[in-house]
Amino acid sequence: MRRLPVLLGGLAAAGLLTLLALAAPWAPHGHRPWTAARALAFAADLVARPATAQERLEFQPISPESAAALEERRARRRAEAARRAAAAGEAPAAPAAPATPVVPAPPPPPVEASRSGNIMRVGADITIEEGQTVVGDVLAVGGDVRVHGHVEGDVVAMGGDVYLEPTARVDGDVVCMGGQLHEEEGSVVGGQRVTAAGREKDRRVRRVVVDRDRERHDDARGVPGALAWLIVSLALAAGFAGIAPGRTGAAAATLRREAGPSALTGFIALMLSVPSFIAVAVVSVLLCITIIGIPVAVAALLGYPALLGLLFVWGYVVGGAALGARILEGRAARQAAAFGVAAPAAAPGAMRAALTGVGVLAGAALVKELLQMIPFLGWFGTLIGVLAWIALGVLTMLGAGAWLRNEMRDGLFARWWKGRAVAPAAPAAWTPGVPSPTAPPSPSAPPSPPASGEPGRAD
Predict the structure, then answer these.
(1) Which of 71, 183, 282, 401 lies 20 to 30 Å from 412, alpha-carbon distance?
(2) Which region ranges are annotated with the description Disordered (predicted)?
(3) Rounded CA separation 361/179 (Å)
(4) Is the separation of the CB atoms in 9 and 52 below 8 Å?
């Protein structure tokens, strides 16, 4: 109640200041206008006196009756809230079941620690168990070393592997000669790790050496085959040149004289060999329909491949003979020039020329095999072999073409095509009224010389 006059005085001062502020613009010019500062100072003067007149408030204690009434009201509110909750059907939440306690795992059994000195084995493996301590070095020759425990010295394996498990501890160096180091995560090595020439590398080195030796042995196995080919070629040349020297020499001369047409003829024969064989096979099948045609079909199936083989084998000999004749003529010309004499005009014989040319062609294969056995010369031997096979194929085709041309022009095929020579006609029979031809008089025999005495004197 004592604060009410103070509040009323403050409200009155605030209203007066508001009126003065609103009336300031209409004040006469001779009077001093009301400013905000003057208004605040005036309000402070009005409020200061009642404010300084205030006294300190003193709080009186509450009576027990008032406190009891307050507690009763609180109890009634709680009871009312409980009734409302029960009417709404809300049940109090059940307390959560206590968690099942976790049973701790039993501790691992204690590891019996053992200590030992240096360990060395030859031809056997070494295993350092977990908890074992080696007061010294571990050396294995020809075996593996597996470490689970503690090695205070060095671990050395010669010709074996070293396995460091996660519980391994090596205070010294780990040396692996001729093997591999297998180090698991968690292992501890206090010194250096030294590895050299593992087993895999040794196997690779041995494999390379063995493969090279095997390749050289395989290269040497080609020498007997090349030698056999040389002998067979010389035998074929001697056989064809010995049995038919005239035809072989004539075909070789045709090749040297008509190389272009011979090449064309040989190429056509080579291209038509497969289609013609197929045609002969088809015709032979058709001939087998009749009983009479079966022998003809069999003869065609066996004879035509033989004819093709004869053509190209003889062509090989003819090509070799042409090459040999060229080589022998060049050699004779060089020898004649060296000795200052005239070169021989006669061509070399068919046998000699065939053996020389075929020997050069087949001998190149033997030279190739021998050169491939020599280090750093294998490439040269391969080059010689490739050139020799190319020359053999070309000369065989040329020789076959020259042989066909010679046979169709002057040989067996020409006689079959032209037929035999026409025989003289028989004398016609005598008809009456036609004089028969008079036989020419036979020539008289010359007189024989006298046996003895003087000429012109009769005995």
Answers:
(1) 282
(2) 68-116, 427-459
(3) 54
(4) no
Question: Are residues 268 and 193 located together in one domain of the fold?
Answer: no
Q: Does residue 338 form part of some domain?
A: yes
Taking the model in full, what pTM does it have?
0.45
As a whole number of angstroms, the distance between CA 459 and CA 452 comes to 9
Closest CA to 11 of 36, 40, 47, 41: 47
First to last CA, the chain: 226
Q: Is residue 347 part of a domain?
A: yes
Dist. CA 39–CA 14, nearest whole Å:
9
Q: pLDDT tens digits for the chain (459 residues)? A: 556 666 667 777 767 666 665 555 544 444 455 555 665 665 555 554 544 445 666 667 777 777 788 788 888 888 888 888 777 765 555 566 666 777 777 776 655 557 778 888 888 899 999 888 998 899 998 889 999 999 999 999 988 899 999 999 999 999 998 888 998 888 989 888 888 765 555 555 455 444 554 555 455 678 888 899 989 989 998 998 889 888 888 888 888 888 898 989 889 988 988 888 898 888 888 888 888 888 888 888 888 889 888 889 998 999 988 998 888 888 888 887 877 776 666 677 888 888 998 999 999 888 888 888 887 788 888 898 899 899 999 999 998 999 888 888 876 666 655 654 444 444 444 444 445 455 555 555 455 444 443 344 333
Domain count, the chain: 3
- The tokens for 369 are 């095999």
Q: What's the CA gap between 139 and 122, in Å, rounded?
A: 9
| Shared-domain flag, residues 168 and 237 | no
CA torsion angle for 128, 133, 139, 145 (degrees, to 10)? 20
In angstroms, rounded to a whole number, what is the distance separating the alpha carbons of residues 350 and 270?
A: 25
d(CA 50, CA 2): 11
CA 12 to chain CA mean position, Å: 111
Is 95 a domain residue?
A: no
